[in-house]
């Protein structure tokens, strides 16, 4: 399918979604949609699996939340929170990209744990275990519809920006690094530098999503910076499908829909999510995108058959 | 100025193993210079020292009079040296076009501003990419994934990637390896066509190929250069015959 058509489907979802499901759920889907697409710039395009994206999501949320609580306007809080994550992700990423594969994963994980415990222990600033409550929304966004529109605009803007990034030479260079890093170096690309760039871009968009999240419920729970959240982000990305730019959006939507639905019926719902994850990893490596392709293909074949 | 590429007393030890020993080598601009020698003679390691994959234990490498010893591998293309690998080394999931385009962009982008454009916005780089692909006879495979190509076509793609970097010197590591006789002949003709435009340093095992296209041959054995000369000289050389027939050092 052409990118333009997929974009129109996404747009239709953004418009129709709030009429079908509670606004707050769709809002959450869009926020985590940004995270999942950003995560895929690393996983799908560059071939880097970070187990530390929750630290950037959480820190973006904390910084924006604290600024909003201090009475700063939205126009300051969100950019400053995002910029903070940008700078931090360059610093953290610099150490992470020195290693590849399993070691890269371990370093991102370790950093995530480190920032989690900072947030956990620094109760005076972050509220520790209780989370950071009482984050005000600007008066303009108090209305749920207004807030939804705001999040939808941020989501679509992020999507356009990230699409532009992966369509640029940078996107192609990232893919050469995924395919064959030593060859990418041999044609003249500084592999570590481009990995750091991909890491920073993905993390910054994740942080931006975090700043918006801070206003959704007016609280930043500590588990938003926990490594389990990083695992959820990876799950969303893989569930949607890493082979397509838009795939992870479906992953985020599917993940949140499943967790909302299953949790109504059974307190042990994460168990079902675990089973879904195993099935996806074993039988559906291309995620929901692959599933749709298969179903579409078999319908096509059934039609052609007399 | 003397040679385009000059190696002075280049050595590489892997722990106790001396892979390359005190090699002095000069590549004349515009020539096809072959390095031959039995398996394990240190030829590929020698290439790795030039292209920055491995730092040398001792010695220096000069290119166009500039000391490039120990330069990281990603900077080597930017001084004008391109490399083809012994094992086919391409980007399997990318198309043929993308494989070559990305190598060309590496050398011809005009800075940070080029990174915010779309890949499809670069008319000139796209045209030149297609030109190189056509020259290598892969124009019908332009939008195919590289992994779907035959072995011979992948070897050709490998050369296309090297040419895309607009090099002065090309390091070719056994370009005919694993090729059928007909494909070997095509590759040989290709190297001859390139010979006028580029300086070529070649590792090759097939003697008839080496003898047909080389201006100068260096023979490597146990990490050392044991003989040098034109094809006729090398054919007559006693030390070379000994090395190939299993003679001891």
Description:
The complex is a heterodimer of chains A (306) and B (249). Chain A is an all-alpha fold. Chain A has one domain. Chain A has helices at residues 3-20, 23-46, 53-69, 74-96, 101-121, 123-126, 144-167, 169-179, 181-186, 191-216, 227-240, 247-265, 270-283, 287-304. The longest helix of chain A is centred in the middle third of the chain and has 26 residues, at 191-216. The model of chain A has no long low-confidence stretch (mean pLDDT 92). Chain B has a domain at 1-80 and 205-249: P-loop containing nucleotide triphosphate hydrolases (Rossmann fold, 3-Layer(aba) Sandwich). Chain B contains nine helices and ten strands. Chain B has helices at 43-50, 76-79, 96-108, 123-135, 151-164, 181-195, 207-213, 231-236, 238-244; strands at residues 5-14, 17-27, 32-36, 58-63, 66-67, 81-84, 169-173, 199-203, 216-221, 224-229. In chain B, the strands form two sheets. In chain B, strands 6-7-8-3-9-10 form a six-stranded mixed β-sheet, with helices on both faces. In chain B, strands 2-1-4-5 form a four-stranded antiparallel β-sheet, with helices on one face. Chain B is globular, with a radius of gyration of 19 Å. The mean pLDDT of chain B is 87.
Q: Which helices and strands, and how do they pair?
A:
The complex is a heterodimer of chains A (306) and B (249).
Chain A: H1 3-20, H2 23-46, H3 53-69, H4 74-96, H5 101-121, H6 123-126, H7 144-167, H8 169-179, H9 181-186, H10 191-216, H11 227-240, H12 247-265, H13 270-283, H14 287-304
Helix pairs in contact in A: 1-2, 2-7, 2-8, 2-10, 2-11, 2-12, 3-4, 3-5, 3-10, 4-5, 4-10, 7-10, 8-10, 11-12
Chain B: E1 5-14, E2 17-27, E3 32-36, H1 43-50, E4 58-63, E5 66-67, H2 76-79, E6 81-84, H3 96-108, H4 123-135, H5 151-164, E7 169-173, H6 181-195, E8 199-203, H7 207-213, E9 216-221, E10 224-229, H8 231-236, H9 238-244
């Amino acid at each position: 399918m052409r990118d333009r058509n997929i974009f129109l489907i996404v747009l239709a979802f953004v418009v129709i979604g709030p009429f079908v499901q509670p606004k707050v759920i769709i809002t959450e889907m869009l926020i985590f949609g940004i995270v999942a697409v950003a995560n895929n710039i690393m996983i799908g395009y560059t071939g880097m699996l970070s187990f530390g994206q929750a630290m950037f999501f959480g820190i973006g949320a904390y910084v924006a939340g604290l600024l909003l609580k201090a009475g700063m306007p939205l126009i300051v809080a969100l950019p400053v929170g995002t910029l903070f994550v940008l700078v931090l992700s360059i610093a953290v990423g610099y150490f992470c990209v020195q290693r590849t594969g399993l070691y890269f994963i371990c370093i991102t994980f370790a950093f995530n744990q480190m920032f989690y415990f900072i947030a956990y222990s620094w109760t005076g600033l972050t509220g520790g275990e209780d989370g950071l409550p009482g984050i005000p929304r600007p008066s303009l966004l108090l209305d749920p519809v207004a807030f939804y529109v705001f999040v939808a605009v941020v989501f679509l803007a992020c999507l356009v920006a990230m699409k532009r990034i992966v369509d640029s030479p940078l996107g192609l260079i990232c893919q050469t690094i995924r395919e064959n890093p030593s060859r990418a170096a041999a044609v003249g690309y500084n592999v570590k530098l481009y990995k750091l760039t991909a890491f920073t871009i993905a993390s910054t968009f994740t942080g931006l999503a975090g700043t918006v999240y801070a206003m959704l419920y007016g609280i930043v729970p500590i588990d938003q910076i926990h490594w389990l959240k990083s695992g959820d982000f990876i799950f969303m990305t893989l569930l949607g499908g890493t082979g397509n730019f838009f795939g992870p959006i479906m992953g985020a939507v599917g993940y949140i829909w499943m967790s909302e639905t299953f949790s109504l019926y059974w307190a042990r719902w994460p168990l079902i999510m675990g089973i879904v994850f195993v099935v996806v990893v074993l039988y559906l490596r291309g995620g929901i995108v692959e599933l749709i392709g298969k179903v579409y293909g078999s319908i096509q074949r059934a039609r052609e058959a007399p | 100025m003397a040679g385009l590429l000059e190696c002075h007393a280049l050595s590489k030890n892997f722990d106790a193993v001396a892979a390359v020993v005190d090699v002095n080598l000069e590549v004349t601009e515009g020539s096809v210079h072959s390095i031959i020698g039995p398996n394990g003679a240190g030829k590929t390691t020698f290439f790795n020292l030039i292209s920055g994959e491995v730092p040398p234990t001792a010695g220096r490498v000069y290119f166009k009079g500039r000391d490039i010893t120990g330069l990281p591998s990603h900077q080597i293309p930017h001084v004008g040296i391109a490399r083809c690998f012994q094992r086919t080394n391409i980007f399997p999931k990318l198309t043929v076009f993308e494989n070559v385009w990305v190598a060309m962009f590496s050398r011809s982008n005009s800075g940070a501003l080029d990174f915010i454009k779309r890949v499809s916005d670069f008319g000139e780089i796209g045209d030149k990419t297609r030109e190189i692909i056509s020259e290598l006879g892969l124009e019908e495979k332009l939008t195919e994934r590289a992994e779907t190509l035959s072995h011979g076509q992948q070897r050709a793609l490998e050369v296309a990637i090297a040419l895309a970097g607009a090099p002065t010197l090309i390091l070719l590591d056994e370009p005919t390896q694993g090729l059928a006789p007909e494909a070997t002949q095509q590759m040989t003709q290709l190297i001859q066509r390139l010979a006028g435009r580029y300086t070529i340093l070649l590792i090759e095992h097939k003697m008839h190929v080496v003898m047909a296209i080389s201006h100068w041959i260096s023979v490597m054995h146990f990490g050392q250069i044991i003989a040098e000369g034109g094809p006729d000289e090398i054919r007559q050389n006693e030390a070379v015959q000994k090395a190939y027939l299993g003679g001891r050092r």
